[in-house]
Amino acid sequence: SKGIIVTGDNSLKSRPMDRIVDPLTVAGGQLEYLESVGRLPISVTGKSLRPIRHHSPIASAQVKSALIFASLVSRRPVTLSEPIQSRDHTERMLSGMGVNVTAKKNDDCWEIKIDNPPCSLDPFEIDIPGDFSSAAFFIGLAVLGGVQDGLAIENVGLNSTRTGLLNVLCRMGARIRIEETNGKHLGESRGFLEISASELSGTQVHAEEVPAMIDEFPILAVIASRATGVTSIRGAKELRLKESDRI
After folding, report:
1. pLDDT of residue 182
2. Same domain, 108 and 155
3. Which of 58, 142, 172, 246 has its Cβ near the most Cβ atoms within 10 Å?
4. Is residue 123 part of a domain?
5. What's the CATH code of the domain at 186?
């Protein structure tokens, strides 16, 4: 079939593409770098793929989702693993659309499988909750005492693969009340947060906590600067490869 060229702005062109191109090439995909190896632009020619089996050395929802969608379009099985569970919005949504997605923790990795991709997806309705990453800045404002009488945030997404910041802040001494509401829609938790001004202490953020708060480190750094003691963060080098260098 006719090929296409995938490119982007300077930010996208600076991001590594080999983590997606390599496993697709192994599965039989026809992809070619047009300028710099490992970077956009890339020529992609439609081609039937073999079953995809890939271990990602990093926890990346983008890599995982790209390979899952490739398996669905080609109707080939996919088995993926990553060292720590990354955001799982794609798996939850696809499960709600009739795809049999299995995810489990093994001894040394997190594994996702789709053995029999369906011919079509079930139609669905979705009510999208408020974005936790956007709410994080208001959470920080309230924790640091910037809101008189505290702050309440309603209908915010509480997917556990996204809310690592709450765990860290509570460990630092933040007064945050968390209440899940309205059950789950397409497997996504949502709820209510009540945040009060708090006296905070420094903490250690470990590598296994990073994927669940990858977008929240800038606001965590601001909050940590107002806490008593030292806050240290380990295993966050992936932050340098986002849309902007978040470190």
Report:
1. 67
2. no
3. 142
4. no
5. 3.65.10.10
Contact status, residue 168 vs residue 224, Cβ threshold 8 Å: no
In a domain, 247, yes or no: no
User: Half-sphere exposure of 194 toward its Cβ, with a 13 Å CA cutoff?
Assistant: 4
Residue-range definition of the domain harbouring residue 183: 132-241
Q: Give me the residue label for tokens 């702050």.
A: 151
Does 215 participate in catalysis according to the annotation? yes
- Tell me the whole-structure pTM to 2 decimals: 0.90
Active-site entry in 18, 122, 215, 245: 215
- 127 occurs within a structural domain: no
Residue 126 lies in a domain: no
Distance CA 123, CA 212 (A): 29
